[in-house]
Amino acid sequence: MLFRAIQELLGNAARHSQGTVVKVMLDMGEERVRVSVDDNGRGFDPDVVQQGSSLGLKLIRERAEMLGGSFEMDSAIGKGARISFAVPARS
After folding, report:
1. pLDDT in the model for residue 33
2. Residues 37/4, Cβ–Cβ less than 8 Å
3. How far apart are CA 24 and CA 55, in angstroms?
4. Cα separation, 64 vs 69, whole angstroms
5. Residue 34, CA distances (Å) to 15, 30, 45, 47, 77 in order
6. Of these four, 13, 30, 45, 82, which has the most CB atoms within 10 Å of its CB?
7. Is there a contact between 81 and 17 (Cβ–Cβ < 8 Å)?
8. Which has the closest alpha carbon to 56: 17, 13, 8?
9. Which residue ranges in the chain fall short of pLDDT 70?
10. What pTM did the predictor assign?
């Protein structure tokens, strides 16, 4: 799930953001695994994306929440985007 989610987020940044920098943060803690993908691109309105047909982001949200985790979108037009999620760590 982590690999496919990161792959989707990087693909979205490459296809849509028109940014020049993309940063991926992966924090594998004792209790949780946290992932954040940030770009300095053109950004978007998160409300429009949530109501639209963005299946990739919806699936990441659903899977993270199904595993007992969380999902956040932080973006604004012209301000880049940060998509992050966390899921419980499993041994």
Report:
1. 97
2. no
3. 21
4. 5
5. 23, 11, 23, 23, 25
6. 13
7. yes
8. 8
9. 53, 91
10. 0.89
Q: What is the DSSP string of 60-75?
A: HHHHHHHTT-EEEEEE
Distance CA 25, CA 42 (A): 20
Using an 8 Å Cβ cutoff, are 64 and 85 in contact? yes
Token representation of residue 85: 């999620």
Measured CA to CA, the distance from residue 87 to residue 69 in angstroms comes to: 4
- What DSSP line would sit under the chain, residue for residue? -HHHHHHHHHHHIIIII--S-EEEEEEE-SSEEEEEEEE-S----HHHHHHTT-HHHHHHHHHHHHTT-EEEEEE-TTS-EEEEEEEE---
